[in-house]
Amino acid sequence: MTVQIAEPMVATYKEERVVTLPETKLEVKDLHLHFGEKHVLKGIDLKIPKNSIVALIGPSGCGKSTLLRSMNRMHDLNSTVKMSGEILLDGESILGRQADAVSVRRKVGMVFQRPNPFPKSIFNNVAYGLQVNGIARNGALRSAVTDALKDCYLWDELGDNLNRSALEMSGGQQQRLCIARTIAIRPDVILMDEPCSALDPISTAKIEELILKLKEKYTIIIVTHNMQQAMRVSDYTGFMYLGELVEFDRTEKIFRNPDQDLTRRYVEGTFG
Amino acid sequence: MNARKITDFVMRSIFALAGLFTIFVLLGILALLISNGAKAFKHIPFSSFFTYSNWNPAAHGASSFGILQLLWSSLMVTVGALVLAIPLGIGTAAYLSEVASSRIRNIVKPIIEILAGIPSVAIGFIGIVLVGPAIADLFQLSHGFNALNGSILLAFMSLPTIISVSEDAMQAVPKSFREGSYALGANKWTTLIKVVLPASASGIIAACILGFGRAIGETMTVLMVTGNATAMPHSYFDPVRTLTATIAIELGEVPYDSPHYYALFVLGIILFLISLAVNFISEWLASKYRYKMN
Amino acid sequence: MGITRANKIKSFLGLRFLSLCTLIVLAFIFIVLFDIAWKGAGVLSWEFIFSIPRKGMTEGGIYPALAGTVLVTLITALFSIPVGVATAVYLNEYASDSVLTKALRASIRNLAGVPSIIYGLFGVALFVEGVGLGSSVISSGLTLGLMTLPYIITSTEEALRAVPHAYREGALALGATKWEAVQTTVLPSAVPGITTGAILGLSRAAGETAPILFTGVTFYLRFPPDSLNNEFMALPYHIYILSTQHHAIEQVRPLAYGTALVLVLLVVLLNVIAFFIRYRFNKLNSSR
After folding, report:
1. How far apart are CA A78 and CA A76, in angstroms?
2. At B2, is the secondary structure helix, strand, or coil?
């Protein structure tokens, strides 16, 4: 009887890049956030490298979605939120009154947990961001929509009929549609808040494949509950716990050999 | 980008202005009623509204502004209406919520909504041409213009409110409560009486209070069928004159800026306060039961 | 065994009682509608609807009253719908969850329950006397508009609240401004509900008598008003006078029935339209 030493489940690693330090696309500096009295984010410091995929993991309630939403000013919708600290996109602050939330959101897009296509046609869903921001019109609009759908592997599936209601699509297709409409306006960063948690495994696999491809053009930050998913798609991983960023490093380090004991216990599954 | 920001700002301001305008309107209504009512007290002592029972402002010599009789008449007709409407309303609501199939519900509910939509003038008209003569025949009276007529009509006018709010309250009772009862061997009726009704009690009481508010504030119907005599009624077969009818009758005859004119506003304030109280109490009851359910 | 038998009887009688209650309610509705329809139909004719009253209202038609009701309802709509919808949009999309907002909502709810004669009282004090518009169709229209305002605000808010929050979030995340998000994702979805609420609110206004009693309605005009400052005739008031104060009450009884039928048909028509809008919208929503 051979005894097999169980190897921890890790995906195959990507090739280590040549040594140049990756340029920082988005930087978070000492970010604190309160929901009323509750201190939800406690001094987050984070540098997101350009054209990488960063996963944020951690148990429920650790603040990962809250952190994500502060990066595209979605907390503006909530009057009980108080924030201090800095978030810089390409060196420019996106918080505070000098920065315009609407233009921030053009550059930092978001895909939500539950697919939320508009009750409009497929075409009008993808065209929405382009029309509202006045980016393209008529012919240019049409080709931008087509490109976005092609980039999301939807073009072949949908065929010619883009006039159908987006609500008639399956869950996985709807989520890819939401990604398509986000990339149609060519943001710099794409935020994804547990994009696959409402989907079946096959749709999940398709979207993970899509995310890996999108890395070429965009910087992606993905919040996920699924550690295997983080291992599969991300270059860097940040582990959060009770509002703090406990550790942030290359994915293989976090899952194989983390510095913090807390991180190790989480990735080993000692606590959920 | 600038044009978009400007549009956004302009639209936001327009909506905020609308909100402001509405606040202004609401406060204005309140202010006008109170100020006009207050003007009445310049000429008429406050206490005389509540000590004298007679309302006879236009009488030569001693004009009296006692509202007690009017208040009594309004209450009389309203309570009479509720005596009819509450059992009928709760019974119908229970039928729709607990017994009827969804097919029947989908037919009956819109019909009841139609009742809610029939103008009060038309109901009053039916009181004159149908209900009145029927009452007169049945009870050997010379005519059917009395409190009973008013109560019957008001009962049916407040039924849609009582039915829909009670039915909502019963529907909100979790299925698990009923299932628990059935599992213990109880039948539908027992479950209704012992589980559903107690659980939805505050909602049902809220419904009845709203029905009360609807009935006591009704003008045209009572104006048309209750006879409008100013004498104190001794039974439901006597004519009565309600608060609302008094305003409706006298506002047209009263000289502007006279004490009588302002006295009508005092009646208006009383009605306003009653409707405020009705609203407040039923809201509080409804929130109590919403809290219980969650 | 005795208890079970007694329970069975109780249950049987009890449930029968419930059906009886429902039947009584339905019976009343049918009697009312049937009586008006039966006795009013004989009077109804093209002439009745479109000609003017003659010979002290004992003959002729109700055209000025119908026109008056349509006119005053139009004024009500022009006032209450824009203000009401805008206020609801403000409350639901822009206002923060402050004490002031809660107070505003509570006041609107309270005003929705205020008796219609109070609005009449207010209308006299403000529009007829205060502002000096006098007894006119504009005074009555504004008074009815005030009465309808809370209803429109509440029903519009309900329609707006029914739009999933996810649509707003999705639009904002794509870089839309607040107004753009509301205009392109919230309002289109809410339009059926808003329209239904508006139609029902207006149908209520059309049938109301108390608010117009002293603000502008009159019993006899040869023609519909040619300016907003004139008095006007209205269907509900016409019914009221014909059935209570006319000097030849018995003789005009059929005319009263006819007028009542026209009013009820108008209200039923509006309700049916609103019902169909709601029905088609629900069908559209569930066919996913």
Report:
1. 5
2. helix
Distance set, CA A50 to CA A23, A57, A236, A248, C70 (Å): 6, 19, 11, 15, 65
CA-wise closest residue to A86 among A24, A36, A44, A23: A44
Contacts of A182 in chain C (CB under 8 A): 173-174
CA distance B137 to B130: 11
Q: What is the mean pLDDT of residues A64-80?
A: 90
Domain boundaries, chain A: 24-116+187-263
Q: Return the number of other C-beta atoms located less than 10 Å from residue B46's C-beta.
A: 11
Q: Which range of residues forms the domain containing residue C170?
A: 63-286
- CATH no. for residue C266? 1.10.3720.10
pLDDT of the residue at A13: 42
**What is the CA angle A74-A80-A84, rounded to 5?**
70
How confident is the model over A106-158, as pLDDT tens digits? Answer: 999 999 999 999 988 999 999 998 988 888 888 889 999 999 999 998 888 88
The answer to whether the Cα torsion of B214, C27, B131, C45 is positive or negative is: positive
The B residues from 204 to 243 touching C (CB cutoff 8 Å) are: 210, 213, 216-220, 223-224
The whole-angstrom distance between B24's CA and the closest CA on chain A is: 25
> Position of tokens 């049409």?
A142
C217, with CB counted inside 10 A (0-12, 13-18, 19+), is buried
Question: Residue C1 domain-assigned?
Answer: no
- Sign (positive/negative) of CA torsion B133, B138, B140, B144? negative
Q: Mention the CATH class of domain A24-116+187-263.
A: alpha beta
Q: Are B67 and B44 in contact (CB under 8 A)?
A: no
pTM recorded for the entire structure: 0.85
CB atoms within 10 A of CB C34: 10
Q: Are the beta carbons of C174 and A185 separated by less than 8 Å?
A: yes
CA A172, A175, A180, A186 dihedral sign is negative
Distance between CA atoms of residues C258 and C39, nearest Å = 7
Which residues on chain B are in Cβ contact (under 8 Å) with A103? 1
Of these ranges, A125-134, A163-172, C142-151, C240-249, the one predicted with the greatest mean pLDDT is C142-151
Q: For A115, phi and psi rounded to 5 degrees? A: -55, 130
Mean pLDDT over each residue of chain C, to the nearest integer: 88
> pLDDT of A205-226, one tens digit each?
999 999 999 999 999 999 999 9
* Ranges of chain B with pLDDT below 50: none
Q: Which phi and psi angles does B163 have, rounded to 5°? A: -65, -50
Closest CA to B213 of B290, B157, B254, B135: B157
Query: In chain B, where are the structural domains located?
Result: 2-43, 64-293
Does the pLDDT value for residue A18 go beyond 60? Answer: no
- Residue A95: both structure tokens together: 């918080």
* Nearest Cα residue to A107 out of A91, A123, A120: A91
Residue burial B104-133, b: 16+ Cβ < 10 Å; e: rest:
eeeebbeebbbbbbbbbbbbbbbbbbebbe
Please provide the CATH number assigned to the domain covering B64-293: 1.10.3720.10
Best of C94, C174, C281 to disrupt the A interface (most A CBs within 10 Å) is: C174
Cβ atoms < 10 Å from Cβ of A78: 12
